[in-house]
Amino acid sequence: MAELSKVEKKALMKKWKAAQTRKYILNKANAKKLFRYLETQLQDTPCDHTLRYTQQWLKDNLPKEKGDSITAEMKEMGGYCDCEVLLNCYETYDIV
Q1: H helices, E strands: number in the chain
Q2: Residue 4 vs residue 56, higher pLDDT
Q3: pTM greater than 0.85
């Protein structure tokens, strides 16, 4: 594997810093609640490759206009179905 150039390293660092300071539509407290809900739902029922549980939780807990924006934001993070939301978005929200 080739070594990254100084310009490439700088670009990656800039991208990483932007991700660290980014404000997400779904706050951390609600993200924790959503992820707990998804864990519970997916324990009993395998993922059907849709966002049905994510969308249901958003519908039940947030205004519709926020839910649509959050769904779009999660897709940008690689969350195209419930299990991907759990796997790909969890670290992005920095939930420990």
Answers
A1: 5, 0
A2: 56
A3: no
